[in-house]
Design brief:
By secondary structure, the chain is an alpha+beta fold. The protein has one domain. Helix content is about 30%, strand content about 25%. The longest helix has 14 residues. About 35% of the residues are buried.
Length: about 180
């Protein structure tokens, strides 16, 4: 089975947002897309990330797959993941993992994946265990993003802006967490 990371997101974290954030953190191209409001609250924009897909699992109803096309980026962390995973990095996203609607990902415990999971938890809120085989259950915890549950209006636009402002991971980000990786 191996040694994994457990990254638990606060309840209400949307899989599409997590997938887009992964794409941004790995340097995939992003575009601002115009959104027309159906509720009369005015127009806005959202972040669209190229090379990101979310697919259903046929075997587990409460699991989805996030697929990241690593051929679409020159990012150095994505290049390391490409060596580990191939051209498409597929991550399982588990829904309803807690009593309050939490969700989580469970990637292998490599430095690149710890850096990615830490950035995701730092952005959305939740907690992370860098190594599910050690005695420590939580290595890092972050509060819920203040606009996480916004669905329209100014708060929603602020959330989209914060997604846009995410920066791709660097080797420096990976170096900060490398000591906790089970796999080098």
């Amino acid at each position: 089975m191996g040694v994994n990371i457990t990254a638990e997101f606060v309840g209400g974290t949307r899989v599409d947002d997590v997938a887009d954030a992964i794409g941004i953190l790995l340097g995939l191209p992003k575009l601002p897309k115009q959104k027309e409001s159906l509720s009369g609250n005015g127009n806005g924009w959202y972040v669209e990330v190229k090379g990101v897909k979310v697919k259903a699992s046929n075997a587990v109803p409460t699991m989805l797959y996030i697929e990241i096309d690593l051929t679409r980026t020159e990012n150095e962390v994505a290049a390391a993941l490409r060596e580990q995973e191939g051209d498409v990095y597929q991550m399982s996203y588990h829904l309803e993992s807690g009593k309050l609607g939490e969700s989580h990902i469970i990637p292998k415990s490599s430095a690149e994946k710890i850096a990615l999971a830490r950035a995701l938890v730092g952005f959305f809120g939740g907690w992370i265990d860098y190594n599910d085989s050690d005695s420590r259950a939580v290595n890092f915890r972050a509060p819920r993003h203040p606009q996480l549950h916004a669905t329209n209006g100014k708060r929603w636009q602020q959330f989209e802006q914060s997604m846009w402002d995410l920066r791709p991971l660097s080797k420096k980000d990976v170096a900060k967490v490398a000591k906790w990786a089970a796999y080098q």
